[in-house]
Fold each of these.
Amino acid sequence: MLMKYSPSAIVTVVALTLIIAGNSGYGQTVTVIDANTDGSAAAKMQVLTPIEQRMRKTVSIDFKETPIEDVLRILSQQAGVDIVKSPKVTGPVTATLTNVPLSEALQNILAVHGFTYLASDNMIRVVLSDEVSVDQTKLTSKVYRIMYANVKDVAAALKDFISKKGEISYSQGTNNLIVTDSEDKIRAIDTFIKEIDRITPQVLVEARIYDISSDESLDLGIKWQAGRVGADIQQTVSSGSSTGEGVINNPYNNADIGTVGNTLVDSTGKSKTDPHVTGLFDSATNKTGSGDGLLRFGFLNKYVNIDALLKAEQKTLSAKLLANPSVLVLDNEEAYIKIVEEVPYQELSQTSAGGNIGTTQFKEIGVDLKVIPHVTDDGYVRLALKPSFSTQVATFGLAVPGTSQLSQVPVINKRETNTVALIKDGETVVLGGLKKKAINKELHKIPLLGDIPLAGCLFRFKGEQVINSELVVFITPYVLTRPVLTPHQIRRLEETNIIPPEANSPLILDKLKKN
């Protein structure tokens, strides 16, 4: 209904409507007059809830350093409404108000102390302002499909990140993460998960473990020296048919490297470039080492055929391949290669009745290698390495308490090292220096004659051979940015050579002819 009112008529109608309407079980009916721009007024009917009616009641107070509990109690009595406060709402109140609506009085008194109120259907709740902002925040739930990371680790990382009202759960079977929180938090979690749920690089670790041995008459050992490092140059053939040579004999001898250069000419007249093994040159003389049987390694670039290089030296230094395993491992995870033989022995113990009980125990001998690779952003691989090599050298008679018997326990010789290296993808790190000396004694004699006192020495021979050996480990990592292996890498992963080669194994040229 549309009517024209003067300003005084508007006030009269509103007051009259409030008096006539009174209270009802469903609320109070109030007529609200809105003035239009043309001077007319529109009357609207609005129904107030009981709590809204009481919030419009006027109150008058005069307090000075009065506890807020008492202030709220008096306001509750004047307005006829129940007021409940949080235990955190404390402190004195100083205020003077006259004929002010309850809603306005609460708003001004509580605001200056960092409090606020929430009106429900039948009462008013006074709380901290921070509690209201959290309580009134709209919560949103979102399901994340974790593709590469461990969902349990992601949930643990987000536990301290979500708000007090937020919740987080996960399903290990489906690798799903369920987060319930505010929209702002959900957006932040989106960014967080995009950063951590990425494809983790994988590293194919290829290891070659050699035991290089020789007697005292040979120049045995590995000479470690820092040499002049040049650019990686892959071997090529400039004339004639291409060959698959991976390593060639040292052409330099004692010549100055500066005058030789990279170009080599073999017996057939073919010209080729040196495969260039970094760390090959003596730092003092800047020349290569001379003499046969000297094995010198440092860091090898990825163009060197390591297998061929070792087999060429195998003839003079008796290098035995102990193992050639390959394993695929995630970035920052431990790869454990264990190729061992368990040696059984009897461990005797005495019973309470005086008898003996024998139990079978085992000791491990063989190769044990632990590798933890880490791929850096600039293409390098950080390798934490711990190789170990053990052999049985003898047995030891351990006395059994209370008896005269001996328990034969194997004596294990163990060699191990622990180091960290930083190399490029596809290059090789070499670990050496794990040396061992073994003395073999032999006796040759003519039966009977060799046992004659004094003169028997003419018919017998005693020999002693000192064998030195050194464990050398070659480790080459190949970084796989995607979980896809090339045919070559698959073959490397599936092939593991454990049987040592024979002393008269084919030389490098035999292998090159087959290629």
Note: Residues 331 and 483 are 12 Å apart (CA to CA).
Amino acid sequence: MRDQTEAPAPPTPTPLPTSALPPVAAAAAPPPAPAASAAPAPPGFGTTGGAVVRAAGRPRTWPRSFADRLTTPLPGVRAFARLAREGAFRPGPDGLRGIPDLPYEPAPLPAATPGAVCVTWAGHASWVLRTGGLTVLTDPVWSRRILGTPARMTPVGVRWEELPPVDAVVISHNHYDHLDAPTLKRLPRDTALFVPAGLARWCRRRGFTRVTELDWWESAELGGVRFDFVPAHHWSRRSLLDTCRTLWGGWVLTDTAAGRKVYFAGDTGYGHWFAEIGRRHPGIDLALLPIGAYAPRWWLRDVHTDPEEAVRACLDLGARRMAPMHWATFVLSAEPVMEPLHRARAAWARAGLPRQDLWDLPIGGSRTLGAPSPAPDPPLPGPTAFADGPVGGRTDRIT
């Protein structure tokens, strides 16, 4: 998702083969503190071959910039001039008329049961996820407004006072609509934080003592849950001087006893990395995927999936179910506010997927996925379910 300081990225450099990706990290043993797994250092980090064991919570040394992880260059002056000339920052009056129709139905959190996964959408990319005996928040933003945008269109779906004790927080990247300092200040400073490479320093400066930062394809464990950090195409910045100083990505959370897996995408454009994530993490039960903040497309296609791309990403992942997010909360782009949901539902239907597997929750809504039965869920059909073929044909390198 894109805050005022955020910009997307045009044309694609020469792709490199997916086979260059490093192998999946094996998760290390855990509690009470998160334990980082053994994982080979990514290309360009000065280490070749051999597994590197990461000590839990200890500071790590990172490069000064992660700009080499971008699959397309960030836009220049001409792109910003075009955006200003076209005035395509926000929906017009017709696009805003749908605000009263945005789905908002807060309700008490359902009871968590062993082996089950309970998800509650608090709005935007903020979820209350209960799995493996833990309560995990994703990109928690409970503030009424974030830097550079109007106030929320809809209130937060879960009152802070009604949250169960929070065991862990995962952060996808440092943009203000995903990393909200006022919200994090509400948490006890010994809450376990799982963050992208380079972001632990920001967290420790705010007093957090249990911070685990990971690179792509690394993992850590806390209690009965494994946290795998996986690639995305996005970028990072919180000021004019720190562009791409910290990494960005998504998370796969696995209940190690029951085997249930939830994928949280954060912010990302569409590309081959979804299939690679699915290959390395087969059997994803639920994919939390962004469907909003995509217009104008020439400006945002490289960093935000549109609704059709989100459905294709779900298929690429091999995920059994999809829950849309990243819409109906903040006015961040030019599409009409209700359009993301309508397009996501239509794309899901065109793909011939079971309607009950599209968890299009209202803000404040919850769904529970029960403990797995002995027989695994059948896989979804592949991307060929779309008559118009795959999106974009991009084979950008994600290392």
Note: Helices lie at 77-86, 93-96, 181-184, 200-205, 273-280, 297-300, 307-317, 339-350.
Amino acid sequence: MAKKFTNHRNKLVEHFKSFGTIEEARMNPHRNVSQDSWNYLCDWFSSATFQKRSLAGSNNRAKVPYNHCRGSLPFVVHRELKKAQEVQLIYIKTFHDTHTHKVKNSDDEDEVQWISKEAQIRHGSQPPEELAIFNEVTGAKKYKRQRVSSASSSDGVVNEFRDLIEILNEKIKSQEDQILKYQDEIKEMKDENQKMKDDNAAFKEDMLSRLGFAPAMYNNLPIPPQEHN
């Protein structure tokens, strides 16, 4: 769903940029987009906020040698997840898994495709050791911003995730305890209300018994006439 939204948004931006002026763009809305919605999008695409974000995104993408297909989770998170699952971490295979995806070919079978030619070329290199292959294909030595080569950074990210999960679990437990408390209070109120009803019925029966009336006779008593001044 997120992929479809991103692709659709990019198509809208490309359609907007295909016109020389914003007035011309307004006069040519994208298909399946109403005129009011398109006017709003034109104002947003031409705003300083969007232009600043777009420029920052372009600059960041230019620094990345190739993309991956595992969402916003950093590589260290995938590594720790494999450790948590007691799966032996293989750097080359992990790189392969995060930079390829499966598609149906003409024979209706799964076919593995690389998401970028650059990643495939780098993955095909054959240094002597696996960690050396990992460092080369990820650019860990060349790009100082790579976090995968730092054990302390990895531990920091994992600890942050663990702390966050612990906080969320505590909040969930607190809410569950509060719900149980409310349920107990509601049950007590219902029991007290039922007890009051039972006491009231018993009091009526006792009074009728003292007056010599049976309960059935009490229910059929005529309404006394009202006094008029």
Note: The two ends are 79 Å apart (CA to CA).
Amino acid sequence: MTMYDCRDDSYTDFSFAEFDTVGSSRPLCGSLTASPLQPDDTLPLSDLALFASQQGYLTQRHGHDLIICDINLADALMVNNRFG
């Protein structure tokens, strides 16, 4: 599969396993990176980090960016809808 990254204007090839090691179906997962609209406006990212943690996701801060690790596609779309 190929995914387009509009932030860096690049394409990335990736693959994923349909099933985990015990045979359970596994949804497509990846990392979601969120950046504030203004560099000093970090409150929305704090709200997003809290929400992601409540959903059971690990988050990491890198400078002004927030990364949600191993988020499934359905939840990533929900986050995008809720937080923009």
Note: The chain has a mean pLDDT of 79.
